[in-house]
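dumping these here so i dont lose them again. two proteins, back to back, each one seq then structure tokens. dont judge the mess
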Amino acid sequence: MQELIGAFARRSLAELVEAAPQSAGIRSWIQTGSFYVDAASSADNVTLKNVSIGQFLSFQGFDFARFAFSSLESMAYCRSDPSRKRAISWPMLKVYYAGFFGGHAILRAVGQSVVRLEPAQAKKLTEIGRMYCGNQFIVTAGTFDLRITQNADRSVDVSLKRLDETGGAHSIFWRRFYSFLNEMISDIAKVNDPDAPSVIAKLQELQSLLTSKGSSATGTWLSAIRNQINYQHEYGVWFPFGASDPDVRYAARIGYPNVGNTRLDFDAKKEPLRAFCAGNLFIAGLSSDLSTRLASQATKRSAPFVRNWQRPGAETGIL
């Protein structure tokens, strides 16, 4: 479904894959980068101004690359062992991480992220913020929604909004990813993207899966199933095995996903394992195909991400 990849690519930071390489991500940039804190900022909603787009992309690009590669590697090694075909617990968990890492990569490609600020970064923001907001300004550690706004002078504003940490890191991420899909659907409809109806329909189908079995509108269903598999040992995927034959056969066929051919219409109540696999495969495939598109469109062919993206694919046979 190339129109879906195109919709994401048009909203991505094309220069992300060409940025000068860094050895650390956004948290390191907050501690070492150049910016000032907008005077209207609060402890839970901080805006960083006068940020060089090139400097930001170097650190954002590091985080994008590590998640894109991690998703691809997880995808490469999530097939079940033919000699132990009913032992599908670890394939289930690996495919989850392919989707989880892939979702993180997608957010970063479009200039967003879910970032955990530790005390060191909170201290740096507090020190700079007090110069513009007064001594009452204090930022504490926590998880933040990061977004950028591009300005006409090639600078960017970086906003950091504190997120509700209910449910832990995975639930935080999936709630944010679900709201991101809402934003994508709204923007695609507003600007009347090519093939907008089919793209929107596919994203809504993914949203429906993410809210399966009473996950409300939070989009955390994949994380809930992962917890049930990993911690409660449910669904018969651990010894003594009890997963159905169709589930076992589906797990045995897990491989590099073609986004356009990945079914998302499994009944999560009757076919939870197949629905779980399909959702993660779809997101991992979207991350991989988007990364391939961005690398293929890059003008700086010697950029590390562009040069390296084909290597894991060649080594594992999935690209």
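---- next one ----
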Amino acid sequence: MFSIDSILHQALGNRSKAITILHPSSTPRSITQAHLSVPNTVFIGVIHDPSNAFRLVEHGPSAEEDQSAVNAFRKLWGDKAELRRFKDGRILQSVVWDVKTAEEKTHVPAMIIQHVLQHHYGLETEAVTTWQSGYDAVLRMSPAVSKVLVDSGVPVGFKAAVGAFDGIVKAIKGLEGELPLALVQASPVSEMLRYTSVFGPVALTSSVAASLAPNARYMPSMEMTLQFERSSRWPDDLKAIQKMKLAFFEHIATCLMTSIKGLSAAVVVGDGVNESEILDKAWLDIVTPEGWAFSARIWHNREAMLLDRVLDASSKARKMPHVAVKTDENKNGKEYQEALEAKETYMRRFIHAPRHHRAIAALCHSHSAFAGTIRLVKRWFASHWLLRGHISEEAVEILCASFFVQGKAESARVPGSKERGFALVVEFLKEWKWEEGLFVPLYAGDSQILEDEEVSAGSSKHFTGSGAWRMKTELDGEGRVWTGRGPDVVVANRVKALAKATWDCMQRMETGVFDIKVSSQTLRTCRMILTRLRLCSCIRRTTMTLSSSWTDLSFLGTSRTWMQIQICSHAEESMPTSRLRRTLFGLGLTQFNCFSRIYRYVFVTE
């Protein structure tokens, strides 16, 4: 055992902060059994040093050094050691780990352990397994879908999505002579553009979609915000501003389709839920020839001032009852509520969302485990039908960020891998007293945002809601921006119970039967928590009520008999259409591909 420990310390070096070797205790035996029943499994635990753990080249001694050092290096690494010349002219003994993707790069420490155990102790690669592969599997597309995408050669991955975003922004800026106002800034506000979506972004052309199953053809769009130069030509009426945005969208769509062959663009008017004429509810859908989809909105900073006028005027009218105000009381109340909702949407969509995006993207670049932690936690919430419908993506990202931005004093607790990050989040949720709230210094490193007068002036002033969680940041002192609409008390308590059940399941990892996807204990726990699904009034079949306006039900065409759909017009009586759409479509691209699998794990039948 000491020999294994010594070899691992030599091989990993400064890649790890700590290494431990655990051997399960002997199992109970009959009194007639002479010898102990000793398990033949050894567990190796490694805490990574993120700054060194995932480097691809191990540098050894140079050719001019003492031959004993060269021999020791070659003895440690075996046939993986080789003499290489580097760009700076050095000739060194080296070990290079061949990886093709960023995901594979996180497996370098495990690859080192597998190699040295095979080289020194003759253990085959199959005999050394890691739980990391199980976590990776829940973040991948199903094999059937992956095969179609790989064979078709469509661009996939976060880098490809960011490149597509840069391309469409460049195309819009190229229309400067054809647009009445020049584009000043285009801000991404999509999880797929900040590396935190559960599944990697995928371009989906019509030809590739035809090769996929109906439940795999959903193509989520990446949201972006367009800010044009200031001009006095913008109207001073809120309704007219929304009409002006429609005219902008129509002109941009026409110009883009003319300049880029194969690009399609369409103006979307209204979301089917809100009827307010002063609310920003129109956007431009853009699908590139490569198959990337974007949703663009226009940010006009004068909207905030006009909305404040309506809110301030209504407030003054109510505070002076002795003054006769010639206005219909009911109409005034409706105007105030519409202005309040419009201001809340404006602040969240155009002020907080871009800044949140930049802060999360910066953390993803500075901490290698951060993006993976978020993706696993989102996957966990989505598997229990909580993501987006009850808990926003941004709230999950802030929750995960709390373990990466707590300062130098707690640097030892910063996760070095996504698996440890996920475990820390689950451990926190099972004990969190959410009534006390959570403060996360998300913008501590960005003084420019903290000094922004527009943000500080309306950080949480017009945000309402009755969400149980309160995740506060420097720009959201009350914690209402991303958690004001949920989760409620019932869901918050359910999250705590699910976290406890998940933690108990993870504590059984050393039994050797742990499966990140599903285990018998997890199924029993789900059966207890969901009271055998009678909370959903379903056993074996789930009946859901949908709005008749939602006609895209093709994804259910081939997904077994887990769900029965009833289309009627009174969906709002049981569940708002918008929430139901977010709950289903919010599962993400490949969670739809694995729809039956999610049902099998979450909706446990008798």
